[in-house]
Amino acid sequence: MINEKPTLKSTGKALLYLLPMLVITITFSIYPIINSLLMSFYKDYNFYTDKVGSWGLDNFVYLWNDPDFHLAVRNTLIFVAGVVPITVVLSLIIALLLNQTKWVSGLFRTVYFLPFVTSTVAIAMVWNWIYQPDYGLMNYFLGLVGVHPIDWLNDPHYSLLALIIMTIWKDLGFNIILFLVGLNNIDAGYYRAAEIDGANAWQRFWNVTIPMISPITFLVSVNGVIGSFKVFDQIFALFQGKPGPGKADLTIVYYLYEKFYTEYKYPIAAASGVVLFGLILLVTLVQLWYSRKHVHY
Amino acid sequence: MKNLMNKHWGKSLLAIGAAAVMAITLAACGSSSKSGANQKVQITFWHGMNGVYNKALQGIITDFNKSQDKYVVKGTAQGNYTALQQKIMAAAKSKKLPTIAQTTYTTVPDYVNQGFITPLDPYMLKGSDKLTSADKSDIYSTFLTSSKYDGKYYSMPFSKSVRIMFYNKDLMQKLGVKTIPTSWEDMAKLGKQLKSKGVAVVGFDQSFDMELDGLIHQAGTSIVTKNLKVNADSKKVLTATHVIWDMIHNGEAKTAGSDFYGDRNFTSGKTLFYIGSSAGVSSMKANAPKSLNWATTPLPSYLGQKGTELAGNDIVMFKSASTEQQKGAWAFMKFLTSKKETTKWAEKTGYVPLRKSAVTSSSYQAYLKQDPTAKAAVDSLDFGFQAIAFKGFTEYRTDVLNAVDAMLTKKQTPEKAMGDLQTSVEKIIQENK
């Protein structure tokens, strides 16, 4: 079958198989993307009758001059820089540990995976309690090592950190599973060969494990960057429908949400979405370029 | 091989066919339900009521449907108010709006601007089913005033609450506080005395925007006036803001922060008083420890003036509904605000009755005797007021909340925060002209 020459009939058949997915992707992804790209250039736009007065770059100029949008970009970048590296390193370490001990690892896998399958709202409610300044667990543990109580959710200096900590915890599970798959796929022969050559545990890890799981590390970090750039639901749930105290947790998607749903400024919301798309594209391209040299398939 | 492949072909074609049939039947189901209710005109009503509130509302809807045989009202809870707003927006875009929906009167200017809603005047002021002048003077005037925009009535009041003050009787006795302060001036004095005892005199919810609106109103002005003049950095507004801000920054008053509602600080004895919504009485009853001896009272006066901001929702009618549906929708709105139904609604939910005759009715008076915590809200109605709605109000509200938030979390002074607010609100009004 693989060696069959493509004919009109076989192409048509392939298309038929692809059709369901294509229809879904085009209606729910491609079409909205093109539409919002167009919308970001609308001026004098009536959302409900779809009448466009004129076209222009005004929406992007608005974003360029809006201090709130600058704050949103800044917060998003801090969030991504805070969440992604720590998630990657921590989940790799935990995956390595789980891979070492065979017994109870099943239990721990489930435990670590639970946050991933739990609804964000439920997680946020629990963390809301953990972060409570007077009787929360977080301050209790910090108190044990002599740190003064912190008002995590009401102090603008700490609320972004609070969000980052919660997100890392939430994202760990899925990444651990990915790393475990990667670790299990490494041929034991490489380790044996390295041992024969006299490599110690650290050398084996650095020269065998790290290069061999680099495709997974790449996947996890690209996934993490894209996911973190789009952060919204955790903020909405943790701060009960507000972008944190003093807008300290205002991110690009939250900004988009506010422009769209509470200020009825649809083209500006679309424009901020386009900027977000550009940012993600840029960072992903840099990651791809880096992976050419350092990822071994 | 060929035969097998044909079989596969047949299968996939069959699957596609089945999917198509399903899609068609589903679509047909969706459109046929409109004419299903025995020729009666169907009126769809979207609201944001949950739990006990939803149950009480469903009861009223059932009553209405039984009371006549021309119309059927179908109420659908859409989650909370935010979700309701979002669904109205999505429905407007896809042209599938309901006949009527619950919304705050402050969104009316934006809805009118976007061409969603229609004035109630043809039904409310004319025709056989209009509101009589007796009806109009019976409904509290502030509710009807806020229903009016641009000289026309666009909404009917429905679920309304006021700000009231809760007090902790046991804690008052323990601290030796004999009388409840009846003015903000006394409240500030008491706050200074109680500070040394580690109790904040008064607690607010996460934001004190409603209380601030109240003080500004009592000072005889508002952040945005009827003529759309912005007063956020005027002397009167700043002085009023300082009343609350000074107390909070001296540790004599407390906002709820991430607890969101101030009832937790109140029930745990961190604050002696708590200013909250009268609709919160039912949740206070459910959450406060049984041993806690609490009661309610109207808000203190400021500069000798009384005032409390009314909050809550109205019902609006959408332009897209047919004339028959609009007639039925009006009949339902009138039914909701009738003496009997508004009394029932108030007794079941803790929202305030909309008519004076409902408050004085024997049924409601008996209810107040049984449950004195509801009295503060009703006593406040005579000096209740509502904000002035204008185009861009939702955006304005976000800015006010941001200003209050900046004063609380970033410790900005009223001069700075209200000064920034002045600039941003002027811009909103300019953009919406």
From TrEMBL, chain B:
Location in or out of the cell: Cell envelope
Keywords recorded for this protein, A-Z: Signal, Sugar transport, Transport
UniProt keyword annotation of Transport present: yes
A cellular component annotation (GO) from this entry: cell envelope
InterPro entries: Bact_solute-bd_prot1 (IPR050490), SBP (IPR006059)
Keyword Signal belongs to the record: yes
Signal peptide range in chain numbering: 1-27
Pfam families, per the entry: SBP_bac_8
Chief localization: other
Coiled-coil annotated spans: none
Family note: Belongs to the bacterial solute-binding protein 1 family.
Protein name: ABC-type sugar transport system, periplasmic component
Organism: Lacticaseibacillus nasuensis JCM 17158
